[in-house]
């Protein structure tokens, strides 16, 4: 039977600290990983000789997408927590109303 590939959690988790809170970097990372998943799935499907091998490729692709989705969620969550910590520290140090206003997050 054909060997099935799955993008490992170690590979995905290793980049989490690097990406931190930059939304553009997280989105770019997500795009690149999705491209890699599709390329691997395409190669797997082309190499499949039986219906079972084809199905295994589809299952592996779905699992890889779910792992990526979870990883990107965790990256975004960590970024939000870092923003909260930064704001909390700013508020704690505030001495005046102007200091508090400076801690507000601008709406986009």
UniProtKB/TrEMBL annotation:
Keywords: Signal. This is Lysozyme inhibitor LprI N-terminal domain-containing protein. Residues 1-20 form the signal peptide.
């Amino acid at each position: 039977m054909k060997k099935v590939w799955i993008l490992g959690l170690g590979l995905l988790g290793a980049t989490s600290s690097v990406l931190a809170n930059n939304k553009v970097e997280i989105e770019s990372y997500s795009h690149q990983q999705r491209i890699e998943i599709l390329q691997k799935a395409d190669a797997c499907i082309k190499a499949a000789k039986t219906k079972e091998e084809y199905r295994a490729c589809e299952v592996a692709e779905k699992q890889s997408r779910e792992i990526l989705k979870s990883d990107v969620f965790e990256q975004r969550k960590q970024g939000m927590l870092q923003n909260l910590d930064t704001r909390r520290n700013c508020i704690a140090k505030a001495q005046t109303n102007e200091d508090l206003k400076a801690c507000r997050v601008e709406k986009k």
